[in-house]
Amino acid sequence: MGIPSQFIRRALGAAVIAVVCAASARAELPVAELGVGMYRIEAEVASTFQARQTGLMNRKMMPLQRGMVFVFPEDAIHCMWMRNTLLPLSVAFLDAKGRVLNVEDMQPQTEDNHCAAGAARYALEMNIGWFRERGVKPGDSIRGIDRLPPAR
């Protein structure tokens, strides 16, 4: 006895709807304009638990001036990893005022921990080498952090 074709059509329809909803949920992350020195950054804002968990997973490319800023609910030694992340990234950990604590380079699809050197409120991920190529170092300030929404 086979599976009724009506069941198969409904199951496929539900799967398509789920994929479309997941794709549009990612696309709806707010974008904040940040800056450092003379450089402008368009950062997707990951301020919810789900957005922080998903991060830049499964992305195949990211424009040069684009990144993602993670907004944490508390200042702490936060750590990042690269599970299911296809792009090599650099992460700058920032304190509550937007000062860079440290910058770490991260390789794709690894589970190595990359942690803040102090109590961080934010983490800003960019394409690998972005901070180094622009001379961004600990103590520098990222503009626009004060306009980010709080963590939810």
Tell me what the structure shows.
There is one protein chain. By secondary structure, this protein is of the alpha+beta class. The protein has one domain (30-147): Protein of unknown function DUF192 (Jelly Rolls), CATH 2.60.120. It is 22% helix and 33% strand. It contains 3 helices and 8 strands. A 6-stranded mixed β-sheet has the order 1-2-3-8-5-6. The chain starts with a helix and ends in a 19-residue tail after the last helix.
Strand line-up across the major sheet: 1-2-3-8-5-6
Strand content: 25-35%
For the record, the CATH architecture stands as Sandwich
Shape assignment? globular
CATH superfamily: Protein of unknown function DUF192
* Number of helices in the DSSP assignment: 3
Number of domains: 1
Q: What is the number of strand segments? A: 8
Report the mean per-residue pLDDT as an integer.
90
Poorly predicted runs of 5 or more residues = 14-25
Tell me about the largest β-sheet: 6 strands, mixed
